[in-house]
Amino acid sequence: NDSIDLEMRISEGRQATINKININGNDRLYENVVRRELRTRPGDLFSKEDLMRSMREIQQMGHFDPENIKPDIQPDPINGTVDIGYDLVSKANDQVEFSAGWGQTGIIGKLSFKFTNFSLTNLLHPGENYRGILPQGDGQTLTVSGQTNADFYQSYSISFFDPWFGGKRPNSFSVSAFYSLQTDISDRYYNSSYYNNYYNSMYTGYGYGYDNYSYGYNNSYENYFDPDKYMKVYGFSVGWGKRLNWPDDYFTFSTEIAYQRYVLKEWGRYFPISDGNCNYISLSLILARSSIDNPIFPRYGSEFTLSAQITPPYSLFDGKD
């Protein structure tokens, strides 16, 4: 005959217990920072789902090449255990932004630094674990930036984010502060021959804002800077977030309270008043879920965000409208 009968018998053995967890190729973070993201732990029963979830959490950190994260599984059938190794390839994740130029008002530029492997502990208590020139190793994020448009606009900001505040639970903490100064130009500019000739030329077709004998540069915009007309803004915010277990552990909930104070002096834009102070307080509530495998080039998963912002009437507190 030209046919056969084939019978396959499979005997399922005992589920292996995880013995050792090895992390290879990590030269950026402290090892405990990587281990706290793992769902596979010594003493637990081996689970492929936990293995894949651990690889996803490592990718979400952003400090390792997601295409080169390879698990190394070494079973021991005799003892009923398994050793798991995570082979990682570190990658740079810090950012530097710099731009500079020259305009009618003077120097225009921006400088920003974003350190994604900052360590506040090493900054406050440097010791044997101190790494490099900048304290690093804890996976925290520190951002410092400054921007200027000569005398007419300046802004500075600093922010700090810790994904595991306290180091024991995945509760995030963030704090930020900023300051900006925007000045206006003097009323003399609008009454000058430069301003009048320039805008009259738009309708008459003659001249381009020049005076009778020169090109009017001595009457140009930057010469009418008025430091006594300004708007200053001070801002501060504090945020806290938590991973949820229900409906599933892809959900996160976070909240942030922000405060801004506006200081105005002879400022006739955006506000119903030109002199005085304005206060703004807001509370933000965010419920989010993300199951994507890679934050930059996702191949599967989904994400959504539901947010609400509440602004209490500050005038009820100070009795001023």
UniProtKB/TrEMBL annotation:
GO terms for cellular component: outer membrane. Signal peptide: none annotated. It is found in: Membrane. The lineage of its organism: unclassified sequences, metagenomes, organismal metagenomes. Its main location: membrane. Residues 16-91 form the POTRA domain. Keywords: Cell outer membrane, Membrane, Signal, Transmembrane. InterPro entries: BamA/TamA_POTRA, D15-like, POTRA. Gene3D superfamilies: membrane protein fhac, membrane protein fhac: a member of the omp85/tpsb transporter family. This is Outer membrane protein assembly factor BamA. Pfam families: POTRA (PF07244).
